[in-house]
Recover the amino acids of this structure.
């Protein structure tokens, strides 16, 4: 018989609906029962594509014996961390304070008021190595709660106090300075893995936000070291097993230091961040590998991760048929059975496929050697080699599609959609891809129609239902994406919505005592603390994204309160970002934007005119990381009221015209591609 979770929409919660555990979703009902019966709360947090979450569900939550202990002694709450990042942030912080580490599944024990007093991650059903058995943990906690209530209360008090202090963020402010950015770049270098790319050792996560900062640093200073670190990492990831060489897109991370053996789940947010990083690298260098890699992400998302209505799904599991990675790995004989003999020989050589394999007797496909070297060895030119690989990949994809697919988390999250929407919008105009623009517009329309209701944004959508009041990251990610969509289409409805979202974000989330923004609004009142994140972890923090958004919107709308709030964030967190740059990649990018005196590029003319398209192409194809772009149509006399940057911007001699400005001071208008390139001071790159 299904439990209460049958009424939820989260795929992760629905995975637990048939457990014998008497699960509650997060909410007042569970805590009221805990108070009435004076029982501790067992809070279990995970997500749908988490391998060890699946293991614990199978081993413990599906066990009648273990469920009986849980139901007898606890009120049990199950949370999808992707749906409720606020709950996850509070209790993950508490767990790290208690144990020095964290992870998922997260297992926390709370008082009936929601205050944590003990926690851990995965617990096995029987004692294993140094891990106590889950039943033993349950019984010990239940006994302690009955017999040592004073100790429980004292522990909860200490954790509560530490949480409140952690989220208060009373930091010294510092004046913005380029020296802060230089210090951050210097502090990254010692951690760089010069053999494999990336930073640190195993496990290795894609450092997309740090790469953004490194590309910006090279553009700002000309430092070759920053570009070398960024490019080497991008190349190693693109050719490693972390990229799905057949289907496109990136897995979550690799368990090794060489980007070969991934944890096979695929997350939308990783792919949005990485697609944008590869596109920026292409704009700066013109390296075709980067464009190919980004476009493979877009094919993957369009084909496998987009709903019929245009929303982007959240994730794909690591497991299929109960085995991690089974969907993605290959036997050499299987490859030879699918391809023609000569074709198979090339593929085996290119991907380093062997009889013994590189992963539990099978092969994760990667490109262990330079394609030019493989081509020389095969006595073909590199273009012919890559044409053969592309044709073979299509056949292998078709064969792989007949396997049992990994599970897909098909909820649609506003913030993660924002990251992918931005990647689509910015890459569409970089690559002259109208189809990508169309996908971006369809996605933005879907989000507006389904997750924006009566001036309020919602976080999660599934099965026709929007749930959970949106968080700071939802507002900041989406509004930033809409600015990029405006710049790609010059349809001001998207910028107007971005401005509306920005205003609501300030009203609902601003911390007027210590600058910046809380992660939660006043709507999220069922929490023991109000989290405020500023570290860029797997995703940009809401505050770092807000700092970038507010600067872009300030230039376009001339709202100086936006700029003031952005600078306050950077003044508070800039010093810490310079000292710990691996954890502040996007914050440093926003800091770089502030220090760069951003370019303001205003166009006057018909966006469909061939001459205008040539001018606009220069702005979009070139690597200009700190810029805003706007356009005034000949017949639009009101747009300057909303975008003051467009005031008095008229065509010269009825020709498409570009105005390049900084701090609202403009150079002479130009009507030629050569004149615009000169005024933009373009670096050598793809355009």
């Amino acid at each position: 018989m299904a439990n209460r979770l049958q009424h939820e929409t989260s795929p992760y919660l629905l995975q637990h609906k048939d457990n014998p555990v008497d699960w509650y979703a997060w909410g007042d009902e569970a805590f009221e029962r805990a108070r009435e019966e004076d029982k501790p709360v067992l809070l279990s947090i995970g997500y749908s594509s988490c391998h060890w979450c699946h293991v614990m569900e199978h081993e413990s939550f599906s066990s009648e014996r273990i469920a009986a202990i849980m139901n007898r002694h606890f009120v049990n709450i199950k949370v999808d961390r992707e749906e409720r990042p606020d709950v996850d942030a509070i209790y993950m912080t508490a767990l790290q304070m208690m144990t020095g580490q964290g992870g998922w599944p997260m297992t926390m024990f709370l008082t009936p008021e929601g205050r944590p007093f003990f926690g851990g991650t995965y617990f096995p059903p029987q004692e294993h190595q140094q891990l106590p058995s889950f039943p033993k943990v349950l019984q010990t906690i239940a006994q302690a709660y009955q017999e040592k209530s004073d100790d429980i209360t004292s522990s909860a008090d200490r954790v509560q106090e530490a949480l409140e202090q952690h989220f208060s963020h009373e930091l010294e402010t510092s004046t913005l300075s380029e020296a802060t950015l230089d210090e951050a770049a210097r502090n990254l270098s010692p951690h760089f893995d010069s053999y494999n790319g990336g930073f640190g050792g195993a496990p290795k996560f894609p450092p997309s936000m740090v790469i953004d900062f490194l590309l910006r640093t090279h553009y700002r200073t000309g430092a070759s070291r920053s570009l070398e670190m960024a490019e080497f990492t991008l190349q190693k990831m693109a050719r490693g097993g972390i990229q799905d060489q057949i289907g496109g897109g990136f897995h979550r991370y690799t368990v090794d230091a060489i980007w070969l053996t991934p944890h096979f789940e695929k997350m939308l947010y990783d792919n949005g961040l990485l697609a944008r990083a590869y596109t920026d690298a292409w704009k700066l260098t013109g390296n075709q590998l980067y464009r190919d890699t980004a476009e493979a992400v877009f094919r993957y998302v369009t084909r496998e991760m987009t709903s019929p209505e245009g929303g982007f799904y959240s994730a794909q599991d690591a497991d299929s048929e109960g085995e991690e990675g089974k969907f993605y790995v290959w036997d050499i004989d299987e490859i030879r059975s699918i391809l023609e003999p000569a074709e198979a020989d090339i593929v085996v050589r290119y991907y380093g496929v062997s009889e013994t394999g590189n992963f539990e007797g099978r092969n994760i496909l990667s490109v262990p050697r330079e394609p030019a070297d493989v081509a020389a060895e095969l006595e073909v030119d590199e273009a012919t080699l890559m044409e053969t690989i592309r044709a073979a990949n299509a056949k292998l994809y078709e064969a792989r599609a007949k396997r049992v697919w990994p599970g897909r988390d098909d909820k649609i999250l506003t913030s993660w959609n924002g990251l992918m929407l931005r990647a689509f919008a910015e890459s569409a105009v970089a690559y002259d891809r109208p189809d990508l623009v169309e996908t971006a517009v369809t996605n933005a329309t879907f989000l507006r129609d389904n997750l924006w209701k009566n001036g309020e944004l919602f976080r999660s959508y599934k099965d026709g239902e929007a749930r959970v009041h949106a968080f700071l990251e939802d507002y900041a990610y989406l509004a930033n994406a809409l600015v990029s969509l405006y710049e790609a289409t010059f349809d001001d409805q998207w910028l107007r919505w971005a401005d509306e979202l920005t205003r609501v974000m300030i009203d609902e989330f601003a911390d007027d005592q210590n600058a910046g923004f809380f992660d939660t609004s006043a709507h999220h009142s069922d929490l023991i603390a109000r989290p405020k994140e500023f570290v860029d972890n797997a995703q940009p923090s809401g505050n770092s994204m807000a700092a970038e958004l507010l600067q872009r919107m300030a230039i376009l709308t001339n709202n100086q309160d936006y700029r003031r709030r952005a600078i306050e964030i950077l003044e508070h967190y800039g010093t810490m970002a310079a000292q710990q740059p691996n954890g502040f990649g996007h914050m440093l990018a926003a800091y770089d934007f502030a220090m760069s005196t951003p370019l303001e590029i205003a166009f006057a003319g018909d966006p469909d005119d061939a001459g205008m398209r040539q001018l606009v192409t220069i702005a979009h194809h070139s690597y200009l990381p700190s810029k805003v772009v706007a356009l005034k149509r000949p017949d639009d006399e009101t747009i300057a009221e909303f975008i003051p940057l467009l005031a008095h911007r008229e065509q010269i001699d009825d020709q498409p015209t570009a105005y390049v400005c900084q701090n609202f001071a403009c150079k002479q208008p130009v009507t030629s591609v050569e004149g615009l390139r000169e005024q933009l001071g373009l670096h050598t790159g793809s355009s």
Summary: The chain is about 50% helix and 10% strand. Confidence is low (pLDDT under 50) at residues 683-687. The two ends are 62 Å apart (CA to CA).
